Amino acid sequence: MHILKSALTAALSFGSLARTTTAFSTVSRSSIVASHVGRVASSSNNSGRTFTATTTALNANVLKLTEPAKDLLPGVDVFIFDCDGVIWRGDSVIPGIPQTLEKLRALGKKMYFVTNNSTKSRAGYKKKFDSLGLNVPAEEIFSSSFAAAAYLEQSKFKETGKKVYVVGEVGIQEELDLIGVPHFGGPEDANKQPDMGPGCMVEHDEDVGAVVVGFDRNINYYKIQYAQLCINENPGCEFIATNTDAVTHLTDAQEWAGNGSMVGAIKGCTGREPTVVGKPSPLMIDYLCDKLGLDRGRICMVGDRLDTDILFGSDNGLKSLLVLSGVTTEEKLLSQENVITPDYYADSIVDFFVDENAKVGA
Hints:
The chain is an alpha/beta fold. It has twelve helices and 19 strands. The longest helix is centred in the first third of the chain and has 14 residues, at 29-42. The chain starts with a strand and ends with a helix.
């Protein structure tokens, strides 16, 4: 899997939804994991900061946040939040989140919301925030569907005259529309079934120059077959994944198979590794730092996944905090097998104001 190392070098305006980008470079995931193994083995706290926190016998490198007013908030100007499992689960906001975000804004903290979920465009996510009663400005929202479009734009895909075949949902299509890249597939192929009688075959468009695979609740055999034909038979066709998350939160009742299962199906029949544009790719953090003048040393990435959110933070020079309100359990975090270590962890971001909450409950 290729992880993009890149910078957006021109302003992205959500109001106009116009954007320009510059080149990405790639690094291998194996080198990323190796660097974490070395980092965990050599240092219990590579930031050099002092925390008032609890440690565990299983993994002494992991610190549970107990005094956020002392250990966390003073050293952070910007919080980058994942959404699924941090802000909401499925279509339900996590209790206490609206009040927590209001308190952070009252302290003058900047916030950005970066999600690997590609089912919605940035405009679509703005509607979701509004529906959950969360007052989040549109310019604070970034999705992997946007990242896929930004990658295609910086590579001047439109100038090739090629098309994109989409395995995914409307979010990817809306972002591609904004940069004028022709596409097809997605929801329109939800009910298609290939004829597999004697001598039958699926005809595919030879002008497809990229297949973008995002989370797709209507994945089917036709889409998988069409995607593999484009990748295997169209010279130079790119295989792009919005993310490779193993599971996701469609509802607050259980975990559901994530985009990693869709990407895995295409990998299995093509033998190709995708270019991954979502976290832990540095695309969006490079933009935030370079264009908004943010100091990486005073940014904290907050997420519920070790291999995307926490990796995104630690490999891009950010503080990182894992919350247990999503897919990662405390047992997994503290296990000897885990080599990805956040600076600290908490049950939920509501714990950022644990002292105030305790006083209210007293």
